[in-house]
Recover the amino acids of this structure.
């Protein structure tokens, strides 16, 4: 007699009277007057529960069955039968019940069968995976993760583990976490207050930080193996606690040699399309659940993405459009300024009513490594915005010309001392190359309708909060 | 005319005279007296290079072709023809050559076509991916990575991103990296030298560290979704610079609810077997190259793994065996002591001459979360050793009994203040569960024959070294 997951039991045709063993936790239960108990069992393999029927004979044998509560863990041996009720096709009639784990003081158990608010569940993040909504998010996250790697593999990209600890103190405006040895407090104060920043005191011989992007390291591999990507955690030390920011999040970064801006836009579009198609095909019950939970019609959202044409607009044209649209924006629109969320919202949700790709931003608001266009004012960059979320992907062609890269480093006050190796890629066999980055939790928010990014990652790390 | 990767050109039957465009870098080149040039082109998609033939007509048109050197990047349009030479089946006769990037001062270019030592290449880690050996390692790493996720997906495990930043200051004996905000030096000294450790000074409100393992967080998801795994970077702040240690490395961790020690051993064996089979099938040229490079017969090593039975031995029996074998070990063998590398070597390489699984170690040398056996002296743990490497996988059944877990935390001086949530998993619907961990670079070393782990990760982070 084999152990079977509930997903397998419910998905596959199993002949009546097949003997089966399942393990799981009780979602809900009721005891009838006729000494028959009905348990709804979950094991995380799918959204649906399996109905277990425990008859009088077992009750007589094991009186503690009556003390079971929601959350208890059990092993059930039994036979599959057609269900009489219309809530499910099949059910498991128990021939043996083993109680594995009780709920200590059931009235204090934080997870009850009723719907809890997401705010409440954040305080019990170690138990929230037991709810329907976090089960659904976890399964969708897994399918996205798996499909992402399959997509990259099929397109011939190699996974490269870029470093998390870095000596680059910045490549833009992001605040970074600083790393030191786990000295006891006395040592920290002694070492640092003397202000001897001579390298000896540092574990790595110099200051070390947590990475904000693996791109520069990834480029070294793109300039040797052509098509590469990285997927790993990245970090921001911003003092912001909003529903859009995490201090630790996962990022996909793609880098393709011998490619230009348009090539990378096509790849990014194909990637998003593929992810959405697969989720719609493989995660229908979980998307349905998330749709109801978020009161956002996710099928409509995702099918709109697939069916609508994606709009393209130059940054300069976007600025003109925003200036002439007579909307009262909080933030002034001007050429050379960054686009704010309200501007992006207007473009994708009101004007185009579709995903939109904004291209060729001014060089002054973009990173030093983006390729300077012939106008000497803009760089070969792109952001993909989607309705309801805003920016989901950002990318650019990289500056492959050594002399211009050097100028851009100077303009940005970035030191040759660190970037010598990055310049070497342009010194030796340079090639045009381009890449994009995608915040994985952003994509998950778009697909699940979750509105707070803290619910898109199992254990969110944010300013002033590092529980669990 | 489509761009094609060299791997596709060489693997697929392409009719003669097909027009093709390829991009790549020159590995080697020679110019014949008859004004014909032969370039060996690589693009990272496979080990082999594509021979490009440039005839007199093109030379007359583009005199700079004669100045090309190893490492230059080019785009070649041309026609596929059968090769006259016997070194390759086909070659590309160029109809157009576009030079994309030169080598600045070719005599200073750190990567020449001759074989460089791995030690030398570590100093040019930003360029070493351009060599045969690092290309081979990168492609094998990718196939391992991809196959690992496919294996987990097929077995029904969900990927869970466990946190990198953690408030757990230790769960064992590993030294950890301490995290702070990127204050400027003045602020660091001011803040820390006052010794006000009241939480206000910390970004997260309390001390934060880089994780040494995602297991405890992963268990929360196993106790809800049954089968889960995590794959991410982990960190050690040990002051050791050996060929077996990294400060930052990638770890696979698996956690399965309703499973016992033997179940997890079977899963770990199936995993290793599957990884080795796939690499042997899909990476033959790269394994061949690594085999020659390392002067270790990797096919023999890997086929031995597949063909030999894996030996099982209890820790207690292993100790008795090591005591009675009359070997002069440097480290004394006694019951209750850890096994050293020399002991593991003897067991797997001399005594069993096969992989060996050692089970049920004394509780005092293992982590608090391992399940106490009925003898009250040992825990339900296992290490898998392979010849040539030593330990490659470590795992255990986890302590699911709240009262015993509490005792073990006490014995290890671990605070309830942090571990309350971990105990909750045993308080509410506890289940037997087990898991294992595998150092990804360790597996890569085993499969590629590389002897220094610094060559198994693109940008190694080790004590006193954080270049690139």
């Amino acid at each position: 007699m084999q152990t079977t997951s509930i997903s397998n039991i419910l998905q596959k045709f199993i002949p009546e009277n097949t003997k089966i063993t399942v393990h799981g936790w009780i979602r809900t239960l009721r005891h009838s007057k006729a000494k028959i108990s009905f348990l709804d069992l979950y094991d995380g393999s799918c959204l649906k529960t399996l109905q277990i029927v425990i008859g009088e004979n077992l009750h007589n044998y094991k009186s503690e069955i009556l003390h079971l509560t929601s959350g208890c863990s059990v092993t059930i041996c039994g036979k599959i039968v057609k269900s009489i009720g219309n809530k499910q096709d099949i059910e498991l009639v128990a021939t043996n019940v083993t109680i594995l784990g009780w709920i200590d003081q059931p009235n204090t158990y934080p997870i009850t069968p009723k719907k809890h608010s997401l705010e409440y569940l954040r305080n019990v993040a170690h138990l929230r995976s037991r709810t329907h909504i976090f089960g659904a998010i976890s399964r969708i996250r897994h399918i996205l993760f798996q499909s992402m790697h399959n997509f990259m593999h099929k397109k011939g990209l190699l996974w490269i583990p870029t470093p998390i600890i870095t000596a680059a103190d910045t490549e833009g405006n992001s605040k970074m976490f600083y790393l030191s040895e786990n000295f006891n407090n006395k040592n920290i104060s002694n070492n640092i207050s003397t202000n001897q920043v001579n390298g000896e005191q540092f574990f790595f011989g110099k200051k070390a930080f947590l990475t904000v992007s693996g791109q520069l390291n990834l480029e070294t591999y793109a300039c040797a193996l052509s098509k590469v990507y990285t997927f790993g955690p990245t970090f921001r030390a911003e003092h912001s606690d909003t529903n859009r920011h995490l201090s630790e999040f996962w990022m996909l970064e793609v880098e393709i040699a011998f490619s230009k801006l348009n090539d990378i836009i096509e790849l990014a579009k194909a990637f998003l399309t593929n992810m959405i198609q697969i989720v719609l095909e493989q995660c229908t019950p979980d998307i349905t659940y998330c749709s109801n939970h978020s009161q956002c019609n996710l099928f409509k959202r995702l099918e709109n993405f697939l069916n609508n044409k994606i709009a393209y607009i130059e940054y300069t044209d976007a600025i003109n459009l925003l200036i002439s649209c007579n909307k009262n924006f909080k933030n002034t629109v001007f050429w050379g300024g960054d686009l704010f969320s309200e501007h992006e919202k207007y473009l994708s949700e009101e004007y185009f009513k579709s995903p939109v790709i904004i291209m060729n931003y001014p060089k002054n608001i973009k990173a030093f490594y983006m390729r300077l266009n012939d106008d000497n004012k803009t760089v070969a960059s792109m952001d993909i915005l989607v309705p309801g979320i805003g920016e989901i992907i950002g990318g650019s062609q990289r500056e492959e010309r050594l002399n211009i890269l050097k100028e851009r480093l100077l303009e940005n006050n970035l030191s040759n001392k660190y970037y010598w190796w990055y310049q070497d890629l342009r010194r030796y066999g340079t090639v045009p190359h381009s890449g994009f980055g995608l915040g994985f939790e952003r994509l998950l928010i778009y697909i699940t309708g979750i509105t707070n990014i803290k619910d898109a990652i199992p254990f969110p790390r944010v300013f002033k909060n590092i529980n669990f």
